Amino acid sequence: MSAASAPPERILRAAHAPWLAGAALLALYAAFMGDIYGLRLLTQAGIYALLVIGYQFVFGHAGAFSLAQGAFFGLGAYVTGILGAKLGWGFMTTFPLSILLPAAFALLVAAPVLRLETHYFALATLGLAQVALIGAVNWESLTGGANGLVGVPRVVLFGARIAPGWPLLLFVWGLVALGGVLAWRLTRGMKGLAYRTVRERPLAAASVGLDGGTLRATAFVLSAAYGGAAGALHANSLGVVSPEAFDFSIMVACLTMAVVGGRGRIAGAILGAVLLVHLPEWLRGLEQYYLIAYGAALLLVVILAPDGLAGLVDRTWRRARGTTETLPFLPSSAVVAFTGGAALHVECLTKSFGGVTALDSVELRVAPGEIVGLIGPNGSGKSTLANLITGLYRPDQGHIRLDNAPFEPLRPHEIARLGVARTFQTAELIGGASLIDNVAVAYAATADANLPHARGRALNALAQAGLSDRAWEEAAAQPAGVRRLAEVARAVARKPRFLVLDEPSAGLTDDERATLARLLRGLAAGGVAVLVIDHNLPFLSGLAGRLVCLEAGRVIAAGTPDAVLAHPDVRRAYLGAAEDTP
Amino acid sequence: MDALTLVQLLLNATALGAAYALVALGFVLVINATGAVNFAHGDLVMAGGFLSVALAGALPLPGIVLLPVVAALMALLGLALSAAAYLPLRNRPPVSVFISTIAVGVMLQNGANAIFGAAPRGGPPLAGDGALSLGGLALDRQSAAVIVAAAILLAATHLLLTHTQLGKRMRATAQDPEMACALGVRTGRMVALTFALAAALAGTAGLLLSNRYFVTPAEGGSLMLKAYIAVVIGGWGRIGGAVIGAFLIALFESVIAAFLSQPVAEAALYAVLLIVLFVRPGGILGEVEGRRA
Amino acid sequence: MNRVLRAAAVATTLLSSIPLAASAENVRIPVLVPITGILALEGTSQRNGAVMALDEKPSGIEAGYDVTDTAASPETAVNALERALSQPNVVAVAASIFGPQMLAMMPIAAERKVPLITISGTAKITEMGNAYVFRFFPTDAVVKVAQARYVVEELKKTRVALVYQTTAYGQSGQAHLTDNFKRLGAQIVFEEGLAPTVKDMAPVLAKLKAANPDVIVLQLHSGPTALFVKQAAGLNLPIVAGSAMHQPSTAALLEPAELKGVCAESGSSPISGGSPTMEKFTAAYRAKFNAEPDAFAVAQYDGTRMVLDAIGKGARNAAQVRDVLATGSYEGLAMTYKSDGTGNMAHDAVIVCYDGSSRVPKIVKRYAAR
Known about the structure:
- The complex is a heterotrimer.
- By secondary structure, chain B is an all-alpha fold.
- Chain B is built from 11 helices and 2 strands, in the order ααααββααααααα.
- Chain B is 74% helix and 3% strand.
- In chain B, strands 1-2 form a two-stranded antiparallel sheet.
- Chain B is globular and about 60 Å long.
- Chain C has 2 domains: 2-138 and 274-339, Response regulator (Rossmann fold), CATH 3.40.50.2300; 141-266 and 350-368, Rossmann fold.
- Chain C contains 13 helices and 14 strands.
- Chain A binds chain B through residues 65, 112, 115-120, 123-124, 126-128, 130-131, 134-135, 137-138, 248, 252, 255-256, 259-260, 263, 288-289, 291-292, 294-296, 298-299, 302-303, 306, and chain B through 37, 39, 84-85, 88-89, 92, 95-96, 98-100, 102-107, 109-111, 113-114, 221, 225, 228-229, 232, 236, 263, 266-267, 270-271, 273-274, 277-278, 281-283, 292-293.
């Protein structure tokens, strides 16, 4: 069992110990070692820590490779620079505006930019940053051009000047603490789990009703706000603003700090910033070779600390203490009770891909409390139907509705929120997370999402799937059957009104299959409408009240299992083609 | 602007684009093989440029003779790069490789600065100086040689990847490493060879650029950006797309800049990039299916 | 009152200089210049000039120093300055050529009362009323006048094509050139800013040609200047370039024939010789650094020598060195330096031209601001 997936409360609390010690060490260092130079470096590290804490939202949590964080930094610096140096506005006005303007800009571009995936998103954000740099260099009347702006006011709070040295250091690190706590509150527990699911398993996230787009946009805007704050402090602390604030090297430094410190970790952001600000300074004695040594040191850290320095500290600490795992006490709520379902109506559904018709005028109805089995040879359109129902594909023609609620304008997470749950042909679980957390995410989109509570309820769902013993084990370490059942547990945990399962019995042992059948019968008894796609005909005929057989995208037979299995077209199309399957 | 000038600018764009195409080609090969961006790629071009300067200083031979030597030495550097910055991280997420290649780039840039100094240096001409006159057009011999050399190298790379056993194995590794491994391809070795090929292409581009446009230690970053833009405009993972993207960048630098001002042309390139991304999120040629890292 | 006190302090120290002479060996003159990044070329000249002066130990004055890279951002420069000032007995700092770095370092220098010895061309640094900045390279207000006057008065050209870099160096020069040409009655018929990464000059040359100028005025860095001169060879227009052209490393990129008709402004041109002391400096520089010296190296050398000279004459701390710099004058290799009251020490400029037979230019005209 991997300790990473077993975070009982006591270990969690003990895990804070090295970080508290580290913070104390840093404070001691500042108090005893810090001359003005040392204090200046620590202040600068604080400014970068703020920048990187912000970057962790979009890069660490939302998993979007943004290259705009340096631009938000520059934007914040220039807002402070222009308003402060040109208009003479004070810190109390320029600082909030330096946070708001980059955030507003991020909000403006979030919709078109976040639609793009990975490298396209990266380059789009980089393109925006480069345009900002070109603007800063060439719009001389506003920005002072390449020479920049001089005379940016120092930090003045309610009339009190925060002088460089100790006052500015404490102010900046006060903001780091504030920003860190805010970031922690915004990404801990259930929110962190939601981001992790969006990042690692976007399909699963949508299937439990999580709106990935909104989550990513929120993270993007938050990161811009932090970047703007860091840029403003940068300008205030230097007294000048020049296009170097927009330089790609700031973005590279930010990315490096995030990865070296530990992706997604607040402690990692701080560690990375402190280390990477100091590292070149420590190597100064090597004169023109110091950056070569810096590069070599950076390479070593990346190779030796796979999860960043924060991960290294955690691992070392855990090894030093030994892993004393105690399962936490979880409040045991009543067995999941189902309070009725809804009827699924599929009418005249047609879908083709690049001229190939995958589904052709399919009609299907699943009544509340009914289990319908969907069969058909490979490529007959079964999974396509599941993906159409859950909104991953858009139909060319036809309608889907749950009772009287139509699906057509809705996106996958909205369909999920109507009460539709699903499992996938290959289980969509977060490999590095425990089974219980994979199930607990089912509650991430509910109003009162709270991780301990959700885990309590997830444990019940896992118990129904016969997996309570493995609840704290890592998903990636489980056999295929267990992963499938865990995914069923996640779908069940959502208390759906309609449930569609894509090949749930594949890879299951006989015992697991019996558990699954018992679970689904229980659901149906509670009124849920259930659609099961499967190849295992004996399993389906024992479970489903009705079978529907697809072939080449058309319904060729529907009715009781016996009637469908005896249908000549089915025997020809399905059994003939799959004689060797059980 | 008269037609003759325009043709002249287009010729310049072709020569510049040919060199950029070699840069982008090496960049996209590594992306395909590893799923990660090689941030040191621009610095490899720079290293190739300085290597040519150093070789030309030691052996007074024309660039065309030095080119294979530069390619061979750069291939060794590529192997070293894969051993230091990729192989130890091959089971990690691609961001680790971003950082490790950033680190190597920093080392290359500052190594060149320490060894050669900060002054720009001119590399050897490929085959003598002077201009070829073609119906009133002054196509200087170096540009013509760059176009021919780059065309030959692009074609050779294409043949290597499509018509040799080695190239097929490299492509198989890029498309599906697990499958390739199951078929007995030594994928680690193939990835290392891809790095070697990419570095050799970058190095020859460095040689081709260093004569007409000089080489400085700090220029790697801007070359890497160009390769990145070329690959995204052309379609992530598409070799032909990267080449088209490279020529498009050169078109903006050498032709569009003659109609707009240079800073406006540069901003316009990014504007076009953003528009391409919003209108065709898969690049001009679309993306290679399933190769999105 | 304050001045009286300070004068009294100087006098007291000077009187007691004999017993204190030994402590001159404890003074430090840190060298904070960009030796990596985009300004590494100019910064390395600066470093070499300062190091040469410090290593020579004129009249036995030994000042401790270390060289710290300020790279390419104001932030790094400020860190370097704070680091340097954390050591005792810093009497002066050889400071970066890069304008934004100077602007960021200046308030700290003023607060800590340590003079900065720089060669940055950015006009603004001596317009801020900062008493601790001393510039030993003629400011743009001097060299750009020389450049414009040479074009209009000597070459008799009136249709100017101005190509400048979109950097601190280029934009600052462009502003001064525009003013000066207007004042001299010349017309700027074409103007364009270029990013330092531009490779192909053909587009700007095509537009420039269409504007039908009779002279090209450049304000580009070393590499781009050489690129431009090389590619503009076919136009047969005279080129009067900025100080980057006079750098031997720029000329090294071009064939002597390509340099024919090319002129440049500068503070000096050490490789052109002119005086036995300059020739001695050039020979010693080549021997020490295996490189050709340029005006930046000379200016930083002269500035550093002036500080050492002040120490030799009894200045023992930063305040005293500052006072000598602010009030004294010094006969350097390139010219005689004296503050104009704002910290500008250099007031002479030269125009050098290449005759097409060698990469060593000849000084064709000297301009003195006063």
